[in-house]
Model the fold of this input.
Amino acid sequence: MKLTFFGGCREVGRSCSLIESGGDHLLIDCGVKIGKEEEYPLLSHEDIHRIKHIGITHTHLDHVGFLPHFFHEGGKARIYSTKPTRDMTQLLLADYHRILHMRRHRKSYFSLKDIESVLNHSHILEYGQGTKLGNLNFSLHPAGHILGSSMIRVQGKKSILFTGDVNNRGTRLLDPAEQGIHAHTLVMESTYGARGDVIPSIKIASAELAKSVTRTLHKGGFVLIPAFAVGRSQEILLTLESYMRSGAIPKAPIYVDGMILKANRIYRQNVIYARKEIQMRILASDEDPFASTLFKSPRTKHKSEVFEEPAIIVSTSGMLTGGPILRYLSEVAGDHNSLLMLVGYQAEGTIGRSLLDGARTIEIDGEEVDVRLKVENVSFSAHSDHQGLLQFASSVKGLKRIFLVHGEDKKQGELAAALKRFEVIIPKNGESYNL
Ligand SMILES: [Zn+2]
Ligand SMILES: [Zn+2]
Done:
């Protein structure tokens, strides 16, 4: 068996690797790296034409973003994923297309027709359902990261498990990643692999969020929560809904804006992939948390009604790189009673990161804005931390070798040192290994 890494090595972005045996193959993920310059997997024209099978772990753009480019460049492959992944991929790729179109920084990029091709070539698999591709067998297993996220286990002469993005702790919405899978080789993400990476439990993070929200609303301020449309937003909304219903935070309108509403709909339609308790609430009672009357969406274009009374605003984008959140931020940036609550990873070069690093002036749409609102940070990460990754690796049965991917190399070095009872490899993009 041969394993090739086309992207996602020593970086977070453009995840893409190929497992081959005899003449059979499966490409695992097909992502882009979004930053100042967009980066793609190192797939040659020839690779794009010969690859016929792609397994997708989950719907974030660093795992699916290259799919429409793949079809645009003449590729044609069957795409395997869970149903929530397929449904949300449509939403995210349409948004990605819109952003590229707005930037117009590339002469040629994919069209809406290419997104259609991606969807037409999608093939839905259930967790645990085996699929045979000649010499290879593969199956999807719950990864605990976002709704429908999967690890992919491939069985040839040897067995190999790709974690995709993995969370081995349960969240409000999701069960933890499946444990105890048998695999000789593990290709594991390492986003929060450094020794110092400790992600607080959902309970502690929620309590911290509640405290800050309460303080802000009591002072008459607004709470702004930038969040990624898929995954984090739903966790945050359910946390706020549950706390407000129980009286742990004061009653106030919760405005939801951006792509989040559409993602919520997909979450509800696919609720059988969520934790049992959430399923029961949506399917068997009148207490559907996503349909809560506490959630409102702004009705006017200027969104001015949002500012009539103290409120909580949850909106995209998660790192303040665009989206309606910027409109809200420019409105309340000067108000020292208001709060910007960052709940996820803030990449370098984003407004989110500079605010986190203490910037007091930022630029929104070419205008300088003075920042007087409070900026806080509480981690609602959908990934495992250092200890979590160690625990996950030790749960894998018969494990001999680990490839660390999807992380910065300094963090990977620290994680590798802690995993030394296995053979650990930190591959580079473009490298191939015989298993
Ligand atoms: Zn992800
Ligand atoms: Zn990822």
Notes: The chain has two domains: 2-196+383-434, 202-377. The chain is about 30% helix and 20% strand.
